UniProtKB/TrEMBL annotation:
It holds the Pfam family Epimerase. Signal peptide: none annotated. Residues 3-226 form the NAD-dependent epimerase/dehydratase domain. This is NAD-dependent epimerase/dehydratase family protein. PANTHER family: BIFUNCTIONAL POLYMYXIN RESISTANCE PROTEIN ARNA (PTHR43245), NAD-DEPENDENT EPIMERASE_DEHYDRATASE (PTHR43245:SF52). It comes from the Bacteria. The lineage of its organism: Bacteria, Bacillati, Actinomycetota, Actinomycetes, Streptosporangiales.
Length: 309
C-alpha cells in the first residue's frame, strides 16, 4: 500500500513508519523536518499540517491509498499557546481530511485518545465506543480530540467512500516513554484525591504500533478503544513502586493549585482536579472481538514492564 504518515518524526510516528516500511508498504513520512538519519526505504517530506497548500501538495505528489494521521500536540512545549495547539490539532486534521477527500484516499487512520470522552463525574465505570465524546474545554488536548472526532463523524455521514479507523488510545507506556503521566509516578509520593480511585488503563507502545499497522490493511473500519485489559488505581501503582500515597480532599487541592500556578510553582491549575478524579476507563472489547487484536500486555503488565525497564 502507498501510505502517508503525518507526524512521522514523533515518538509514535517514528515507530509506525519503521513498522510499515518493514511490512513492505510504500511509506512517505511527513513532518516539520526530515529525520536524522532518515529511515531507509522511506520517502520523507517537510510538511506543516497547519498549511493547507503544503498538505495538498504532499498528497498530490505521493497519491496515498491510506493516510495515518498522527500529527498533534500531546505535550505542549515551552512557549506553546492554545492557539498554536488548535491550529495543529484541529486545523491540521481538517486539512488532512480535506486532502484525503480531494485526492481519493481510500482510508484514513487517526490517532485519537481516550481523552476525547472527557473527564466527567457521570462517565460509566467502563467506557465503550458507543459513549459520546465530551472532551472538556478546559483541557486543550481533550477538547481538540473531541472537535476532531466530531469532524470525522460528519465526514463519515457525508462522505462514506473514505473509510475511517479512529483509535481512542489510552495512556501509552514503553521502554523509552517519559511524559506527563509517568512524571506523576516519579514523585516521592503519589497524589490521590480522597474518595476517588482514579484508575489508569495502560497500553504498551508496541501494541499501539501493531494496531496502527493492522488498521492500514484490515477490513475493519470503525472506532476502537486501544488499551490493555484491566486497570490500576493510584494505590495499586504506589504499592508496586514502594511509595506512599498523599491523599488530599479535592477542595484543598483545588485551592492549592489556584494559588500555586500564578506563582510559577506548578503548570497545573485548579481544573486539573477533574483529570485526577474522573479519568475515562477504556473498555477494549471491541478492539479484541471486532478489530481482531488483543494487546500483548495487560494494564498491569505494561506498568511492570515500564517500571522495570
Amino acid at each position: 500500500m502507498r501510505v502517508l504518515v503525518t507526524g512521522a518524526n514523533g515518538f509514535l510516528g517514528s515507530s509506525v513508519v519503521r513498522s510499515l516500511a518493514a511490512a513492505g508498504h510504500d511509506v512517505t513520512g511527513a513532518d516539520l523536518a526530515v529525520p536524522v538519519p532518515p529511515v531507509p526505504g522511506v520517502r520523507h517530506l517537510v510538511v506543516d499540517v497547519t498549511d493547507a497548500a503544503l498538505v495538498d501538495d504532499a498528497f498530490a505528489g505521493t497519491r496515498p491509498e491510506v493516510v495515518v494521521h498522527l500529527a498533534s500536540i500531546v505535550t505542549p512545549g515551552r512557549g506553546s499557546t492554545r492557539e498554536l495547539e488548535y491550529r495543529v490539532d484541529v486545523d491540521g486534521s481538517r486539512h488532512v481530511l480535506d486532502a484525503c477527500l480531494a485526492h481519493g484516499v481510500r482510508r484514513i487512520v487517526v490517532s485519537s485518545s481516550g481523552a476525547a470522552y472527557g473527564y466527567h463525574a457521570d462517565s460509566p465505570a467502563w467506557i465503550t465506543e458507543d459513549q459520546p465524546v465530551r472532551g472538556n474545554a478546559e483541557f486543550a488536548y481533550s477538547h481538540h480530540k473531541r472537535l476532531v472526532e466530531e469532524m470525522l463523524a460528519a465526514a463519515r455521514a457525508e462522505r462514506p467512500e473514505l473509510e475511517q479507523v479512529v483509535l481512542r488510545i489510552g495512556t501509552i507506556l514503553g521502554e523509552k516513554v517519559d511524559n506527563q503521566i509517568t512524571a506523576l509516578f516519579e514523585r516521592p509520593r503519589l497524589l490521590k484525591i480522597r474518595g476517588a480511585d482514579s484508575p489508569f488503563v495502560f497500553v504498551w507502545d508496541t501494541d499501539v504500533t501493531a494496531v496502527i499497522e493492522r488498521a492500514v490493511t484490515a477490513d475493519a473500519p470503525g472506532v476502537y478503544n486501544v488499551a490493555g485489559d484491566g486497570t490500576l488505581t493510584v494505590g495499586e501503582i504506589a504499592a508496586r513502586l514502594g511509595k506512599p500515597v498523599l491523599t488530599v480532599p479535592e477542595p484543598v487541592l483545588r485551592w492549592a493549585l489556584r494559588l500555586a500556578r500564578p506563582l510559577g510553582l506548578t503548570p497545573y491549575g485548579p481544573e486539573q482536579t477533574r483529570f485526577l478524579r474522573f479519568r475515562p476507563v477504556l473498555d477494549n472489547t471491541r478492539l479484541k472481538t471486532v478489530f481482531g487484536y488483543t494487546p500483548s500486555k495487560t494494564t498491569a503488565e505494561a506498568f511492570e514492564a515500564w517500571r522495570t525497564r
